[in-house]
Amino acid sequence: MTAHPAPQHQGRRSSAFSRLLRYGFTDPSAAGRLLEAPELAAVRDDSVLLEALGATADPDLALTALVRLAEAQDEDERHKLLSTLITAKPLRDRLLGVLGASEALGDHLVRHPRDWHSLVTYEAADLHPTTPEFEAALAEGIWGERGRDRPRPDALRAAYRRCLLGIAARDVCGTTDLAETAAELADLATATVRAALEIAAEEQPTDNAACRLAVIAMGKCGGRELNYVSDVDVIFVAEARDGTEEAKALQAATRLAGRMMRVCSEVTAEGTIWPVDANLRPEGRNGPLVRTLNSHLAYYERWAKTWEFQALLKARPMAGDAELGKEYVAAVTPLVWQVSERENFVSDVRQMRRRVVENIPAAQVDRELKLGPGGLRDVEFAVQLLQLVHGRSDATLHSATTLEALSALASGGYVGREDAKALDAAYCFLRTLEHRIQLHKLRRTHLMPEDEPDLRRLARSMGLRTEPVETLRKEWKWHAREVRRLHEKLFYRPLLDAVAHLEPGSTRLSAKAAGQRLEALGYADPIAALRHLEALASGVTRKAAIQRTLLPVLLAWFADSADPDAGLLNFRKVSDALGKTPWYLRLLRDEGAAAENLARVLSAGRFAPDLLLRAPEAVALLGAKDGLQPRSRAALEQEVLAAVGRAADAEQAVAAARGVRRRELFRTAAADLIGAYGTEGHPAEADRGHAADVVGTAVSDLTAATIAGALRAAVRDQWGDTLPTRFTVIGMGRFGGRELGYGSDADVLFVHEPREGADEQEAAKAAHAVANEMRRLLQLPSSDPPLPIDADLRPEGKTGPLVRTLSSYAAYYRRWSLVWEAQALLRAEPVAGDAGLGERFIELIDPLRYPVEGLGEDAVREIRRLKARMETERMPRGADPTTHTKLGRGGLSDVEWTVQLLQMQHAWHEPGLRTTRTRTALAAARDAGLLATEDAQILDEAWVLASRVRNATMLVRGRPGDTFPSDSRELAAVGRYLGYEEGHVGEMLDDYRRTTRRARAVVEELFYGAAG
Predict the structure, then answer these.
(1) How far from the centroid of its chain's Cα atoms is residue 470's Cα?
(2) Among 379, 402, 381, residue whose Cα is nearest residue 182
(3) Using an 8 Å Cβ cutoff, are 37 and 67 in contact?
(4) Which residues of 756-780 are buried (b: 16+ CB within 10 A; e: fewer)?
(5) Quick one: pLDDT at residue 365?
(6) Is 80 exceeded by the pLDDT of residue 372?
(7) Distances (CA, A) of 338 to 300, 345, 369, 391
(8) Residue 938: pLDDT above 60?
(9) pLDDT in the model for residue 378
């Protein structure tokens, strides 16, 4: 068969396909068909056109829009368009640049085919137009020839888009940079609001004649740094004209302002412009839309919050009565620069500094350019905060524009020059990215797109042509990381420069400015803080250099606590103790979590830092992979017994055991604090009940291991390996329930049983000697926390023998046992010593604590009587019964006695109730139908909360307590541990009272209700 050569047109088609691919078209077939459109016949073969299309962000989009635009022209106009396009490079770059970046502006050009002429030539003023030029363009579009016979709002929208075309063209072609583009957008917004107000006045001349109305620009518009699509934030201020009552003038001004807002925001045949948002006004949406100047000032002087003054940083007169606008700004400006002297400034700042990331849908956090971590809000907040702190004494910082203010901060030494330069670059990149995303469809969004074509267009619009999508992702993540890195450094690096004195002659913070900044960030004693910084960071040693790297972010973490001063002081103490060890600073520098974990622990209270300062090497736990995981009782006991075995005598042995206890208490407390606060990598523990259980189990297991060590030491010193009697320790109360808190005593019973052939008197004497020696050893004066052993729950209490034989316990319980003693035995569990003897003790007491057929009515009445008596007699004098965690309303005692009553009544037939743990028994009672699910949840929530408050009090104060601390800083620290932000202490106390009040209602029903 003879082969025939391929038709020539197929070769041309293949060549054209390849050529279009090279020019950046993603769908060359569709592009080829578009180029064949008759409207492009005059230019389709011109390589200049293809090159220009290939240079756009999206060649496919640009070509599609160009064909649509050509189709919309009449024949003469189309000829002008295409010939100008080919011969005039400025138009070609501007028009195709816009068409390739903005589908929405392409649609506008199709609707208004002649508007392409606005891109043909630029006069000098056209290169950087300001408000007057935009006003003139809008006026011509509304009241001139173009706007004739059109509704004014429609004419305004068309004229606005025409002006936006020019801004977008200058932007995508690089004629203007980010700052110039944002300023032009703000100036266009200003001109648009003025035109809208003029339209409103034209429609409502009576209202206009009755009042003087000024529009104040706020937010990004006020700072002349607006986005392509953004709400335009404003505040309205009005005064009556001569002869008009103030009330009527305000009504007129309100109608005028409302109409102006609708002119801008309503959707018409020409679409919409943007919403005008007046929610930054006094009282927000709940306040009047328009106020007089005096009314504004009265509000700001009496009621305004710190964030409202922060917002006023951006205020500038925008439209309406210019004189009134200037009066408003002149009156509020001094208030802005006094805000850092307000009593609540520090707590307000801390609240503002905590990003509201949790309000962003989880699926969007990683796509947020504005609010997400490392986003634009971080930069803007940091700059504004530094302005508020230092602007009261330095007028050069009074700029409403973020980048101008950042430059001024660097010039004044308030921010390091290199840091400012890096932050400027990151901010410009992120804002440009935001602009390009919004420009595509002229929609308000701050989210990175997810689709590959959108990402490709976005990347090319940013000038990225080689592997554009991957390169864009990398650059975005890098800039976001830079913002996060610099965000805290911005506050703290200049403080270190101020004390380190490393670069003579360079501009740095004065001592006064450094003190002001530390005060603003929550440090109560800035002079002492600067002294600590100087001690840590001065000099040219390697240690000082590493500290200067670490301290900026550490200081930020300290400032995010209730006691930054204590955090910094404790860090200095730990650093002084470990400064010469080679691994300490390397651990903090190289192990990502270690430094943040240390900062959280050192600034959250006294208990954990005191433990750490007694053995600073325990800081290594904070960086180890499983360093904060609780260890099992078996592992703890093995280590303690090994340490005891190596010691020379009993006192050294127990000192070693207490050393293990100290380290493990630190491990538990550190994990608890870090879990409660959360870190950048791990959010705070959400299951508060689980957190309480982990602490209770860990402290109880540690106490059991320590007692086992003390028992081994006491026996070995006098009797060697074998005591003449079997000896066991029974945990009672919260110890037996494995619910110990950091400050709990260890309630125990001591049980012994003479070995076969041993003299009973000698055995009893040995058992008493061991018990007394254990108690002595565990309470010897030491730098380690004491471990008080309380044996008062034994038969006959303090008057009874400290140790009894198993048979003696059996005889006593058989003959003399009272109902409260049986109740106390509900928590009994062997914790140390002879395991077999412990098991037989449990067998002995089970019939007592789980009586067959439950309790009789007399026993129930007796339990209730004892509980009522305890409530009245044991509550400390002057204590608030609504907040006392142990004996107060709905507190630990209420919940535990209620659960224990259910156990004694029903455990004989409900095996799940045979447990020493309160929460486990409560869940079993719920599952057995002994109480409603809701009631069980209420009791559980109250018990967990009261347990956590007790733990928090110990962690914060370093000593146990059953009530909230009275000191305000300590109370705030307890609040932070419980998950309440700064300034929400009242809410914490209200929540505690509400939770326990509900629990008490359940207790009244279940415990004090009908018997049986």
Answers:
(1) 29
(2) 402
(3) yes
(4) eebeeeebbebbebbbebbbebbee
(5) 66
(6) no
(7) 12, 10, 32, 9
(8) yes
(9) 85
Q: Who wins on pLDDT, 541 or 643?
A: 643
As a whole number of angstroms, the distance between CA 901 and CA 984 comes to 37
Angle, vertex CA 793, rays to CA 751 and CA 851, nearest 5: 85
Residue 479 CB coordination number (10 Å): 21
Looking at residue 936, the DSSP 8-state letter turns out to be H
Residue 241 makes CB contacts below 8 A (sequence gap 6+) with 209, 210, 211, 212, 249
Whether the per-residue pLDDT at 396 is higher than 90: the answer is yes
> Could you count the other beta carbons within 10 Å of the beta carbon of residue 641?
18
Report residue 776: phi and psi, to 5°: -65, -45
What would the mean pLDDT of 928-936 be, rounded to a whole number?
A: 96
> What's the mean per-residue pLDDT of the chain?
90
| Statement: residue 473 has pLDDT above 60 | yes
Distance of CA 507 to the CA centre of its chain: 34
Please classify residue 71 by burial: count the beta carbons closer than 10 Å to its beta carbon, then call 0-12 exposed, 13-18 middle and 19+ buried.
middle
Its pTM stands at: 0.75
**Cβ proximity of 737 and 693 under 8 Å:** no
- Which contacts (CB < 8 Å, 24+ apart) does range 854-862 have? 854/904, 854/905, 854/906, 854/908, 854/1012, 855/819, 855/901, 855/904, 855/905, 857/1011, 857/1012, 859/819, 859/904, 860/901, 860/905, 860/1011, 860/1012, 861/1011, 862/819, 862/820
Q: Are 728 and 832 in contact (CB under 8 A)?
A: yes
DSSP run (H or E) holding 967: none
Residues 6+ apart with CB under 8 A from 508: 413, 494, 497, 498
Block residue for tokens 């307590």 = 961
Local structure of residue 504 (DSSP, 8 states): T
Q: What is the mean pLDDT of residues 670-678?
A: 92
Write the DSSP symbol of residue 395: G
Report the distance separating Cα 432 and Cα 178, nearest Å. Answer: 6
Instruction: Calculate mean pLDDT across residues 786-790.
Output: 89
Whether 3 shows a pLDDT value over 60: the answer reads no
pLDDT tens-digit series, residues 832-844: 999 999 999 999 9
Q: Is 237 helix (H, G, I), strand (E, B) or coil?
A: strand
In this prediction, residue 656 carries a pLDDT of 95
pLDDT digits 0-9 by tens, 256-277: 999 999 999 999 989 999 999 9
Measured CA distances, 677 to 550, 559, 961, 980 (Å): 20, 13, 21, 10
**Which tokens is 62 given?**
């640009």
Q: Is 597 exposed, middle or buried (0-12, 13-18, 19+ CB in 10 A)?
A: buried
**Residue 371 in tokens:** 């609010």
What is the dihedral sign for C-alpha 971, 974, 979, 982? positive
Torsion, Cα of 465, 471, 475, 481 (10° steps): 170
Distance from C-alpha of 918 to C-alpha of 446, rounded to nearest angstrom: 49
Lowest mean pLDDT among 2-6, 794-798, 846-850: 2-6
Q: How far does the chain reach from its first CA to its final CA, in angstroms?
A: 105
Distance separating alpha carbons of residues 780 and 454, to the nearest angstrom: 72
Q: What are the tens digits of pLDDT across the range 615-662?
A: 898 999 998 878 899 999 999 999 999 999 999 999 999 999 999 999
* Alpha-carbon separation of residue 360 from 370, 371, 378, 433, 980 (angstroms): 11, 8, 15, 19, 20
What is the C-alpha separation between 163 and 946, in angstroms, rounded? 64
- In this structure, the number of other CB atoms found within 10 A of the CB of residue 542 comes to 9
| Measured distance CA(164)–CA(144) in Å, rounded | 19
Strand partners, 232: 276
